[in-house]
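Quick check before the chapter quiz. The format below is the same one you will see on the exam, so make sure you can read both the input and the output lines.
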Amino acid sequence: MDERELEQRLRTAVEHAAPDPLDRILAACGPQAGTVLPFEAPKKKRRWAPLAVAAALVVMCCGAFGISSWRGANAVDSVVMLDVNPSLSMEVSAQERVLSVTPFNQDAETILGDMDLTGTDLDVAVNALIGSMLQNGYLSDIQNAILVSVENQDAAKSAQLQQHLTDTINSVFQGGSLEGAVLSQTVTESADLNALAQQYGISVGKASLIQEVIAQDSTLTFASLAPLSVNEIALIAESRHLATQSVTQTGTASTKAYITAEEAKNAALAHAGIAESSVAQLEIEFDSEDGLMVYEVEFYASGTEYDYDINARTGEVVNFSREGGISGGTTGGSVTSGSSGSYIGEAAATAAALTHAGVSEADTAYLRCWVEHDDGRAECYEVEFLAGATEYQYEIDLYTGAVLKSERESHGVPASGSVPASGSSGVIGEAAAKSAALSHAGVSESDVSRIQVEPDRDDGRTLYEVEFHVGRTEYSYEIDASSGAILKAEQELDD
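Here is the expected output.
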């Protein structure tokens, strides 16, 4: 009700509060004898009759109450955010009526479908949304975690609503015979959180959860966690023993979609050709590589540090690195028939390539071995090394150690011109080359993944090839081994 309408109602109430009774009185008296002489009543200051005043007050009170009720029913009191992988938010009135629903990604639009939840009770809306997530497969036995975030200026009310929604969702899960996990939190909107939420197409609540996680583990990045589901983020946090006072969790995030940590460990050890009895400082954690859930397996053996990323669904080796040189004494270092179905290990693959080339490891300037993948499937071992002026490239069978392909290229320079080892006189070293590439890209080492540094030669020049990923972007650099100058820099988005 606006001011003009309120004023009109007041005017009408006053006009009808004390009507003129003269006509009614005369009609009741019947015929009159004589002449009625009119006379003027003494002029008095006009006053509202008590009835008129009362009527006006009633109208004013009703109008004020109506305005207050309208505002209470339509003003935003709380913001409720739900995140699974669908990510959406609801503006809610003080009477817990839904005023609006905003989807933040395509998955959330799928969940909403043709539903119009405006004006519905919050509990009804939440039940409808959870039901749609179950029906569309976003919540299931293998992805069972949901994040509930509440924003309200009244901290006590925010906490009360957070608990109420947690209980409501758990009831829906129980009704659907789903052992779900509910993560809940109260959040305070800020410019930083808003910017991150808009950048990655997620809710402010999910942005707040990710910030809490990476604040406790600097090896994780916002870019790597944002594309993941709440279930996957919860598994990463749990495997790394991360905890926060601001996030409450009921239930356990599901691991039914993934192999076990024990299976991931065995895959890494089989690839390295190392027995578990020879391993020290073994660590296994969930991680993400370009949106793919992996187990990160790290261990030491014979003075060498091994770092593996194992596909958490298939058990395949996604990526691995090793520091400390190649040890010829590790288990599985000789070529075997592979009848057990396990990889022979990189040490055996390297030995097979060196034997075929007639080169000893001591004569190589650099030596690398890794598993080559095609469409996510392991194809073979790739072995590269430089001996004197000749560069060798080999493809070795994963199971038998047979040489599938071999190439060699002479650079036409004497042996003294081969790539020097890191730290040799006049060479900046791999660490400096990596630092130069990261500095040029404007990123820190904690932001990158799958970083590789290799010495190489090109047209008689000694250089380092540096490759790494930041999110879905791949960076490739060639760094002058003597000066540290950037010879070549490329970046492209992975498909």
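If your answer matched, good. Residues 325-341, 413-419 have pLDDT under 50 and may be disordered.
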